[in-house]
Structures are given as C-alpha cells and as structure tokens.
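PROTEIN DESIGN WORKSHEET
SECTION A - STRUCTURE
LENGTH: 418
TOKENS:
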C-alpha cells in the first residue's frame, strides 16, 4: 500500500489536461504540459458542385474539464473563443485570406458537468477555397484564464480536372434510412468502442459525366502493427454529379487501438486513393488507453502484481470494468476530478513510449520511462553529451521530493546508474 500511495502523491502533484489528437497520428499532445486549453479539431476539404471550388472545413470542440470555470452564487461559468484564419501559402505574418471567430459560454449548476471530458457543443467553420497551398491557424482562448492554444496546418490541393474525391472523415449515425439527417462528425476521428459501427464519409464529384455510372471501392482497416483487421469491397452507382458516400465499418471484431483506413475507388477505370487515421477507444477512459490488457500491465509501477494478477484472466469487458472502478475509487479517495489521475499516469506512459523506446523495448519499460511514470516530469534535466573520456549521461532532478536520478548511455539506451 505504501508503494501505491507514494506513487499516487507524486502523480497528483502535476496533474494537467494533456490530451488531443495531433497531426502526426499521436493522441498525446505536449502542449498540455504548459497548462494550455488543449482542444480537439478536424481539418478537411469537402467538394462542391463547381469543379474548381471546394470547402475547407474546420471542426473543433473543447471538453469542459479543459476549461476554467468560475463559480458565482450557484452557477459555474466558463467562456472561450475560437478563431480560425486561412492564409494563402505558408507565410502567416501577413493578412489572412479568410478568417472567422466565435465566442461560446458554458453555464451549469452541476459541478460534475465542469469535470466532464466531453463537450456539449462543437463548432464548424467553413471557407471557400480553390486549388493551391494554404496554412490554417486555429486558436482557442480560455477567457477566464486568458490562456491560448494554437495549432497550425499546411494544406496542399492540386486536383486535375474531372473526377474528384474529397478527404475522408469518420462519422457515426443513428438512422440508416436517413443518414444525412442523423450522422454526426467524430472530431479528432476518435471512435467510441461501445458503438457497433462507424463510417468513413466522403464526396464523389463526377461533373455530371453521363458515361460514368458504376463504381467500386476496396477499403481496408489496418492496425498499428500493419495487420489488416477488416477488408471489404463496396459497389455502387453514381446518381448525382456530387454524391455523398459513406463506408460502413463494423466494430464488433476490432479491438481498441489506432487504425488507418485505406480506400481505392475505381470509377470507369479511373482510380483514386484516400486514407485517414482513426482512433478506436473505450468510452470514459484515457485516450492513451488503446489495449486494456496492456494498460493493466502498465499499472505495475503503482501497484503490486499480486493485487492485479487475477485481472489478466478476465475478459476485455471485465478488465475494463475493473480498470474503471480501480481508478475511480483511487481518485475519489483523494478528492480528485474524474479520470484526472488516470489521464496523468497514461500521459506519462505515452510520453515515455514516444521518447524513450528502443528496439524490442517499449519506452515505458526503460529506466527513464519507469522514473517518469512514477515521479513525473523532472524539474531540471542536465544533459552531458559525448566527451573524450566519458559516455553521455543525464541527470534528472526533482526539487520537491529531493530526488536525483543519473542515467548512463550504454547498450543503446539510457540506464539508471546503480
């Protein structure tokens, strides 16, 4: 028990909101370390009925627990602004070609709603563009703290005349017979594992070519290890010059994890490929928890093996229930907001895997990874590179706990000095 509590106290010292889906396909976002209001977003291009005109779509939302609420009487109040600017080319120190902004206020009488990892409102900003190179800049500002979080994306569109396919984006819907009125975009392409299915949506532009009728789409779902977990062939008919299309993806036999959908459409002998990354996650768990069995194993730094050994024999659903109960009980005993401790711990796991992994060893299993997971981000890092008579080494210093760790570079990784 002493092992658990000492680790928990170290974890609680630096809990911060740290999660978003970044452009390189990683869930973890280091911007949160600075206490910025990290938000979720999608940027994609959709087509119009005019051949050389497109819509650049920016969808964004921010979870309530990423905002600073102020209490006045019996009301909890937060507000934020979202601004998007689109620049022609890659320079952003000039006047943007387009810009839009909106302000939103979140008011609730329930404290638990201020701690929700969900958002009740998303924002959609649209800009008319043509072929070319653009830079999209999105800034969200928490108006209570005046802190801002900004993301930038460079986009290139160079379509030839004729057949066009828009970007893929993940969606969920509730009515197969009336898809267009019941679908919802999944911001960040994060899919809830508890849903039975999801879908990849896009538009097909044929320009009213009467000779184009039938088409076929081969699409595959590929896991992070490169294995194909789903493979299907869809055949359809062109009915309109601009046609909305969705590929249904059943989730029953696909486990939580990171995936890529690869699609090739064949229309009249013309073939176009599209792909997109999506993230299948357990609802109400950290976005960094993809495999529940691995997540339980990763908890061995803060609990004894004997106390969790029985969990490895459970089904995934039973593991998930145990996992949620364990973290909820721990967080409630410390008076913390829901998922905050779990989020911080698995943020550290994700950081270690991103920065400290070596061949045949995940970053969280290395000496640096272990220290990071248990003690958190060091207050000071002293790096000593190669010199004539010594190998590289690093010193991590923790002021509050008066701890110091020295890592020597040997055998291709940094190992803790005994």
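SECTION B - SEQUENCE
RESIDUE ASSIGNMENT:
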């Amino acid at each position: 028990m002493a092992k658990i509590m000492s680790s928990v106290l170290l974890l609680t010292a630096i809990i911060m909101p740290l999660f978003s889906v970044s452009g390189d396909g990683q869930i973890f976002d280091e911007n949160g370390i600075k206490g910025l209001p990290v938000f979720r977003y999608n940027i994609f291009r959709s087509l119009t009925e005019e051949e050389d005109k497109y819509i650049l779509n920016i969808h964004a939302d921010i979870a309530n627990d990423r905002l600073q609420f102020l209490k006045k009487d019996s009301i909890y109040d937060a507000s934020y602004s979202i601004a998007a600017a689109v620049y022609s080319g890659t320079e952003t120190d000039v006047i943007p070609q387009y810009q839009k902004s909106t302000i939103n206020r979140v008011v609730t009488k329930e404290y638990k709603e201020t701690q929700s990892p969900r958002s009740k409102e998303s924002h959609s900003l649209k800009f008319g563009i043509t072929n070319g190179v653009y830079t999209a800049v999105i800034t969200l500002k928490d108006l209570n703290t005046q802190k801002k979080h900004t993301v930038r994306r460079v986009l290139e569109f160079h379509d030839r005349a004729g057949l066009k396919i828009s970007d893929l984006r993940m969606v969920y819907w509730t009515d197969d017979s009336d898809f267009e009125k019941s679908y919802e975009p999944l911001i960040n392409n994060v899919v809830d594992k508890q849903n039975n299915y999801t879908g990849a949506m896009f538009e097909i532009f044929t320009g009213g070519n009467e000779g184009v009728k039938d088409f076929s789409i081969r699409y595959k779902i590929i896991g992070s290890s490169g294995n194909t977990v789903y493979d299907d062939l869809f055949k359809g008919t062109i009915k309109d010059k601009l046609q909305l299309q969705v590929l249904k993806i059943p989730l029953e036999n696909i486990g939580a994890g990171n995936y890529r959908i690869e699609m090739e459409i064949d229309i009249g002998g013309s073939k176009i490929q599209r792909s997109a990354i999506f993230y299948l996650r357990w609802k109400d768990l950290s976005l960094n928890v993809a495999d529940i069995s691995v997540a339980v194993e990763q908890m061995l730094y803060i609990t004894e093996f004997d106390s969790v050994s029985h969990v490895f024999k459970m089904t995934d659903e039973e593991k998930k229930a145990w996992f949620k109960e364990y973290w909820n009980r721990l967080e409630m005993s410390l008076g913390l907001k829901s998922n905050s401790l779990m989020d911080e711990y698995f943020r550290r796991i994700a950081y270690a895997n991103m920065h400290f992994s070596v061949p045949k060893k995940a970053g969280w299993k290395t000496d640096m990874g272990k220290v990071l997971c248990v003690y958190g981000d060091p207050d000071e890092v002293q790096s000593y590179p190669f010199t004539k008579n010594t190998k590289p080494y690093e010193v991590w210093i923790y002021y509050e706990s008066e701890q110091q760790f020295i890592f020597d570079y040997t055998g291709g990784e940094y190992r803790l000095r005994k």
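SECTION C - NOTES
Residues 124 and 162 are 28 Å apart (CA to CA).
The longest strand covers residues 75-88.
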